[in-house]
Amino acid sequence: MSERFTTTAAAYSVFDWELLTSLPGRVIVAAAQPGPGRPYRSVAAGLAGLDAVAAGRAFDSDLVRDVVAAIYARHDGAAPPAARLTGSADVLAACRAAVRVLDRRTDPADSAAYRQWVQSVAARVCRTASFAAADGTLAPADRRLLDRLGGALDLR
Fold first, then answer.
1. Which of 31, 53, 98, 119 has the fewest CB atoms in 10 Å of its CB?
2. How many domains are contained in the chain?
3. Containing domain of residue 92, as a range?
4. Cβ atoms < 10 Å from Cβ of 32
5. pTM score of the predicted model
6. Measured between alpha carbons, how far is 29 from 134 in angstroms, rounded to an integer?
């Protein structure tokens, strides 16, 4: 583990760092879940989300790169805690909590990069969904989810 990575993680409480490192995965699960107006997603949608997480390694943000490194550094294989809910309401609340953490502890540029990256993870899952129109338009339910995520991430 690099010194920069441990320095970034040390700037946050254990709870806050867990929030920031778990949020992208929670967003993938929430965006991939079927629901009203959102039929079953293919495996490709989840894989697209994982690809979007990995793309964070190339971001011009130490925070995003360090969060991705922390995600990939997890080797324990332990089941996620029960408190890590992935319904859309839970994920939106987690997004709002992450924004509060970022506002308190993070450089504005890193904060913006992190929030945009998390939104891009959800967008990639939604775009890859098997029911996206041939012209690339999203289903209305996906558009609403992305709009709500953007609001919760303070991107609107």
1. 119
2. 1
3. 3-152
4. 24
5. 0.86
6. 24
